[in-house]
Here is the input.
Amino acid sequence: MGRARLRDLGITVGRMRPGPLNAITDVPGVLVGHCTLIADVPRIVRTGVTVMVPREGGIWRHHAFAGFHAFNGNGEMTGQHWVEESGLLVSPIAVTNTHAVGVVRDALVAYAAEHGVLDRWMLPVVAETFDGWLNDIDAFAVTKEHAYAALAAARGGPVAEGNVGGGTGMRCHGFKGGIGTASRIVESQSGSYTLGALVQANYGSMRHLRVDGVPVGSELEGKWGTPSPPGSIIVVIATDAPLLPVQCKRLAQRATVGLARVGGLGFNSSGDIFLAFATGNYLPAQPAGVVPLQMVPHEHLDPFFEGVAEAVEESILNALTAAETMTGARGTVHALPLDEVQRIMARYRPRGEVTE
Here is the structure.
């Protein structure tokens, strides 16, 4: 069968309702753009850049509270020390390959300077996972212009998944991985809000892959896919709720739950780094005085934690179901066989059976 999103296969995870697009772009003002690089000469290139732009591009002038969490730190996310210190996200967020982090980071600073939105200095957030199996990573194919192209392509609406942008050359649980996204509508005592996640999934062993709790990976091991060493995953979480930095950090920590549900264990060589930001407060880059703030009480956060777990779980699975088989520098990485997944799920979950 053709590639699909998880729900197109008749498989749902969790109990919470997704947003209209079931994507991070359901969060008002969040835009996503990709630049995908595929070439065979003079070097084999399977890589790219993905950007997430809060506030419809206004993030340069109107910052957002943010927090991050490293489940396992064998990876890179630039700007995280200032996020930790100040609790502020001051620029778009980008994800790319391991050897392109510096180029993309510098590109975001240059873009801000060229467009007159650089407030003296900037420490942008750029994260990475390693695509060196499919991509000749030492070709250093990603340039400033590719980061600019991803920014120019940033839009609301449906988000392309799988072999796109920063996820172009990534593997996940022995199959082709890449970019995935999902969202949840959070009904809390403080009101209704939208929460979304986007992942660059490049981690995990096949035997640990689970779909809604079903051991799909162990059923497929030895029949499909390719052996892969433990890799990394970047998770970005967005919400329009008025959260403070410490609360964003608490949301970022809960991405670990969604990752674990799919089979991520945080291996030694894995860079599992998560960032959450909240746009519910207005934070001018150059405030004139005291800035009034709002916050959801900590006691009302449990639905947000559940939403993060569900959205991250489904984002990873959407990356797997969307990604297509790819041949690159060191061989071929097969797509997750969707027909087989459906058969396995039907055997474990007979039609009509409801799970929580």
About this structure: The mean pLDDT is 95. The domain at 6-286+294-344 is CATH 3.60.70.12 (L-amino peptidase D-ALA esterase/amidase). The chain has seven helices and 14 strands.
